[in-house]
Each structure stands twice: as structure tokens, then as C-alpha cells.
Amino acid sequence: MTPAARVQSAIEILDLVITAATSGGASADKIVADWFRSHRFAGSKDRRAVRELVFAAIRSCGPIPASGRAAMLRLAQADPALPALFDGSHHGPQPIGLDEPIGLGGTAPQWLEARLIESAIDPADWPAMLERAPLDIRLNPLRGSAELPQSGEPLHSPLGLRYPPGTPVEQWDAFKAGQIEVQDAGSQLAGHAVAALPGETVVDLCAGAGGKSLALAAAMDNRGRLIACDIDRARLSRLAPRADRAGVIIIEQRLLNPGRESEALADLAGQADAVLVDAPCSGTGTWRRNPEARWRLNSKELERLTAIQARLLDLAAALVKPGGRLNYVTCSVLDDEGANQARQFLARHPDWRAVPLDLPAGTPREPGLRLSPAHDATDGFFIARFVSP
User: Fold this and answer.
1) How many whole angstroms separate alpha carbon 6 and alpha carbon 48?
2) Are 177 and 221 in a shared domain?
3) 40, pLDDT greater than 90
4) Distance between CA atoms of 71 and 283, rounded to whole angstroms?
5) How far apart are CA 382 and CA 337, in angstroms?
6) How many domains does the chain have?
7) 8 Å CB contact between 316 and 385
């Protein structure tokens, strides 16, 4: 592919990303992968270059742009090499017109930037939220010590190591043997905050594909009872093979029916030493990995998510035994889903109390703490721990 053809290919992919973002379609990662599968002529260097153009253009636009071409023109304003590639050549983009629409810059749509300010996120910290994320791994003590082909940077999390983006860790023998898991440092700290101990009964209420469940099982040394729950069958189905690879044997899976979770968890009422609520959220803390997520969010969706979070916290509280722990986590930096949500839980449950978290990273955001890309070099998270009366 010529450089101009790469730009035109990126524009075509961006059109698909924009359509998906406005209609609740597939993620940008999946769209890119699907496009390459249907365009076999693109070699490895072409795929790398086109992918970099796509995500650079996404990051360059705050509000959702009018088109993929508008997004690429926004990127061209910051990259002096790009305008010349709009040359009208075969397979290349048409020359730039005088009055063409150009995507707007910024960090996010205006209403969302206002929410960041309300949540005391300094605008000087916003660029870090859109930088490309590194690759973090968690060592798995259940599979013994791992011999890694290259050394990584130690993280705040006790079993974490960091590598440059794109490091092919899934091809390493240690990964195939279950000795390491790919997991962001912030996610590792969120699991560490549960302080799960061997022999305990622990519920991972929103387990998804099970990254935190695997970390909890390792902390419990494969002893005790760990119940991994979710309403998404496809995501939960990915946990079993991951657990087998990691040597985890204590996980019980429960697929829950939305709105009827209490029935499926009735036998656990008042029985859990700890419950982790890694709640569905806006994902504002994960823009480094999913920059197009800024375009998917609106105030109505945020209200829907905060209602779900409140319901899940109340559901989790009923599972905790007297003196037990409830850990609340969201991969969001917004107070609506973090500190405010935690305060509202305490207002609804005045006998419960929040306890300080002893973590090696994070900034207090009462009644919990917040991790951020700018200050902690992790994804953005809010983490709080409550203790039952």
C-alpha cells in the first residue's frame, strides 16, 4: 500500500468506528481487526501503519467527528506529513477542500469535560488519559516462578511487571503455562484491596471474563470458596479456560438473570467474608485503551449506569456476613460513579462504615481513593472498602 492508500484505508475504518460509536456497535479494536480480515492485501507493515493512523485520529478528536475524513483532517493539522497525502491518487484520499468539516480537538465532548472538572480532574491531567497504555502483567504464584524472556519494570502492585505496548507476552511460554496474566496495574491493585485470605468465602459479583477472580484465587492460595458471577454468558464463558490455564480450582461460576440476581444468590445471604463489586461503568478510566469510548457516552447512559451501580451495591451488601467486607470498584474517574456513589451507599446503609485503603498508589477521594493515568500511571479507578456492622 502507498502512504496515501493507508490514509484512505484509515478514513474508511474511521467511518465504521464513528457509526458504531453512535449506534452501540462493535469496539474500534474489533472493527479494525475485521477490516483487515476482509482486506487481505494489507501486509503487516500496512496493518500497523493503518491502525496507528486510526487510533491517532480518534485520540485527536474530542467530540465525535462528522466523518472519518473529518477525523483524519483533524490529525493532519498536527502532523505536517499528512496533508500532502490527500493527493487524489489511485486508492488515496481526495485533495483537501477549502471549507471541509474538520473534527474538533479537546479531550472529550464538552458536557463530559465539564463532568471531569466537577470531579476535580485537572485539565493538565487530561492528556495522560488518552496516551497509549503500556502492557502490564501479573505473576501467578499458583504456577510457581516464571522465567520471562525479557525483564519488566516493577509496578506498585506486588506481583506486577510492565512492558512496552505491543510486547507479545501471549506468545511466551510463561503465558501458555499460566504463570502470567495480562492485567493493568490499577486492576491488580483493585483486586489486592479486597485482601482476600485463604479459607474465606468471596463473591466476585461482576466477574466478567474473570481477571480479578483469578487474582483473588491466587491471593486465597486456592483455598476457600470463590463465587464468580455475571449476567453476560459470553464473557463469563471465557473464565473456565483461563482458570484451567492458571491452575485455579476454587472458582464456582454463576450466570445471573438480570433483575433476578437476589434469587440466584439467596443461599449466600449473610455468608460472604468479602464481596467485590467491579461495577459496570462509563469506562472513563480506560480511554487509553478505548479512546472511542468518549464518543459512546452521554448523560442518559451515565444515569443508567449509576442506577445499576447503586442496585449492585445494595445487592452485595445483603451477601456480606457481620463484620465482612464490601469492595466497590469502577474503572471511572467520575465522582458520579465513584465518591458520590460510595457516599450514597453509606447514606442508605448508615450502620456500615468506610475504612481506609492501604495501597501503594492512589489519591484519597473520600470515602475511597482514585487511581489516575496522570498520577499513578494506571488506568483510572475508584476503589472503596466498606465494613458490615
Assistant:
1) 10
2) no
3) no
4) 22
5) 8
6) 3
7) no
Task: Sort strands 368-371 and 363-365 into parallel, antiparallel or unpaired.
Answer: antiparallel
**In which domain, by residue range, is 75 found?**
3-106
Same domain, 350 and 243: yes
Tens digits of per-residue pLDDT, 147-164? 999 999 999 888 999 999
Residue 56: alpha-carbon gap to chain centroid: 19
As a whole number of angstroms, the distance between CA 359 and CA 384 comes to: 11
**28-37 and 44-60 are packed helices; what angle lies between their axes, rounded to 10 degrees?**
150
Residue 287 has φ and ψ, to the nearest 5°, of: -60, -25
> For 221, how many CA atoms within 13 A lie in the half-sphere containing its CB?
3
Cell representation of residue 273:
467474608
Grid cell for residue 101: 468539516
Sign of CA dihedral 259, 265, 270, 271: negative
Give the CATH number, domain containing residue 309. 3.40.50.150
Determine how many CB atoms are found less than 10 A away from the CB of residue 96: 16
Question: Do 159 and 61 share a domain, yes or no?
Answer: no
User: How large is the greatest C-alpha to C-alpha distance in the chain, in angstroms?
Assistant: 71
Please give the pLDDT value at position 153: 96
Residue 44, pLDDT score: 87
Indicate whether 23 belongs to any domain.
Answer: yes
Enzyme catalytic residues: 331
151 & 280 share domain:
no
What b/e readout covers 47-57, taking b as 16+ CB neighbours within 10 angstroms? bebbbebbbbb
